[in-house]
Amino acid sequence: MNTSYDVKFWDIRRNASSKTPSYVVRWKVSGREKSKTLRTKALAESFLSDLRQAAKRGEGFDLATGLPTSMVKIKAAVTWFAFALAYIDMKWPHAAAKTRDSLTDALATVTPALVNDDATDAPDPLVLREALRQYALPPACRELSQPEDIRRALSWLDRHSLHVSDLAKVRNVRLGLDALTLRLDGGAAAATTIARKRSVFYNALQYAVDLEELPANPIDKVKAWKPPKVREVVDRRVVVNPKQARELLTAVTYVGRLTRGRHLRAFFACLYFGGLRPAEALGLRKQDCHLPETGWGRLVLVKSKPQANKKWTNSGQAHDDRGLKHRAQDEGRPVPIPPELVAILRDHIEEFGVHDDGRLFRTSRGGVISIGTYCDTWKAARALALPPEQVVSPLAARPYDLRHAAVSLWLNAGVAAPDVAERAGHGVDVLLKVYAKCIDGGADIANQRIDHALNS
């Protein structure tokens, strides 16, 4: 394969020669112009992004097809199993740890279902899943020594996997969709799990379409299969009021041995008074904080510390060091904070100091606090602060619900939606959709207007 690193990209343009909307991705490899037409602008942007990412990784581009070597490898895959491995190889380098987890989770679910009708003597489903998740799908794990049952399971899958072209048939793609709806124990999977895995499956099939291995995404042809509806709005029952939030923050200080609870009080306060995501609070550094002696302060969030399995991170650590969600790398987000949070953070720094890198919240050895640690602390604090009937309710059941309470409070205080979205790191459309049921007063206003119309 003759390759070149001399690649140039142009902006996407509307296909003027077609009556139905379509969009053209154009690029040049060693002076040779290449193009691909896709049905929607979103698909075109995704395809162009994959090309740019490949160039950024230093991949050579095939002179004949104009595609980067990773895409050529995917085109050469005959079976779905081989395609899934090549697809993971293409996605892996620029995917976040949690995205890698989701990719392997979904593909480990659908791949065992996409086999020939005459496939007999199937391995135990638990063994097949372990073989895919722990040995085959993560690129770095493929060279590991494989136990005999793992080796046999992957060999069986390699022999019986459907051809990619077979997935053009609706009955075959339904095998994968049906597999998404079940847990390993045969019970029904959660709606959010099904939706997440279906998205990965759909995108992988769409990539086969982009590479012209399938004529169209077969999932679009499946009419009788409907994914369950996923709750996309915050349940207002989880939202605490300011009095309850303060009682919970006080209760946190009584949890755990030595100073563990007191150390985490400021962490939880950042979620409630600042609307931070937990991973953003874990990445908060002293140099990110403007904490005046009086009045409002400001945080400029830059880093995030999301937690994932060590297998999925580049560093081999449980927490990745990443930029902010929905932001470009190193793009900060300013968050004004009220005097109450300013005072809490000043007290925290005075009592506990900061890590060598400036982080405010860390373990006794300087590590990143785990999800399990702060969730256990929060659970204990709820039991101390809330009456029994509220302990068993959804009220602030998770630390993340403090962020929901913060955003709901801002909206109900009359803060303009664009300002709330900027502070919370949301888009305005997503903000209003997610928090629609947490905004008070809307029903009363609507009732007054209807009553006025009926009686005028």
From TrEMBL:
It comes from the Bacteria. SUPFAM superfamilies: DNA breaking-rejoining enzymes. Residues 310-332 are annotated as: Disordered. Residues 318-332 have a biased composition (Basic and acidic residues). Keywords: DNA recombination. Residues 235-450 form the Tyr recombinase domain. InterPro entries: DNA_brk_join_enz, Integrase-like_cat_sf, Integrase_catalytic, Tyrosine_recombinase_XerCD. The keyword Heme does not apply. This is Tyrosine-type recombinase/integrase. It comes from Microtetraspora fusca.
